[in-house]
Design goal:
A hairpin with a 4-residue loop joins strand 6 and strand 7. By secondary structure, this protein is α/β, with parallel strands linked by helices. A nine-stranded mixed sheet has the order 7-6-5-4-2-3-1-8-9. It contains three helices and nine strands. It is globular, with a radius of gyration of 14 Å.
Length: about 150
Amino acid sequence: MNVEVTRAVVTALLDEAARIYPEECCGLLLGGASDGGLRIETAVPTANVAPERTRHFEIDPAALLAAHRAARGGGPQVLGYYHSHPTGQPVPSDVDCEHSTGDLRIWAIIGDGRVAFWRDSGNGFSAIICDVIGGNHPDSPIDSADAARVAES
C-alpha cells in the first residue's frame, strides 16, 4: 500500500520534537485515502500523559477518543501515531515493540533530526516507504536508511 505524507506534516513533526525536547512528544496522524493508498495530511499534537515523559510516551486517551469520534462523524481518519526519541534514532525501541498491537496503523518516529515511518505488524514494526508530497527538496529530513523517501510531486 502506498503511503503519502505532506511535507507540512514532516516539518510539524520535527518542530514538535524540538519544542518538547527533552521530553518525548506524541500525537496523532490524521488523513484519508488517496490514489491506491493513504495520505497523512495532519499531525495533531497531544499531551504526553506518561509518568516519565523523558523516556516514554502515552497519548492522552481523551484526545484519542475525540479523534476517533470525529472520524466516525466524517472527519479525517486516525491513520496512526507519532512520538519522538529525544536522544535516540527514529527506529522502534524495545518498549515500542512491546506495545505493538497489530492494528496496522502507521507510526512516525522522530529522532536525531529525522523522521521514519513504520507499520505496526503485531510482532513489532515493519519499515514503510512514504512519498513526501507538497514540494521538492533534496535535503529532506526523511532518512532513506530509516524507511522513507522523497518523491517528486
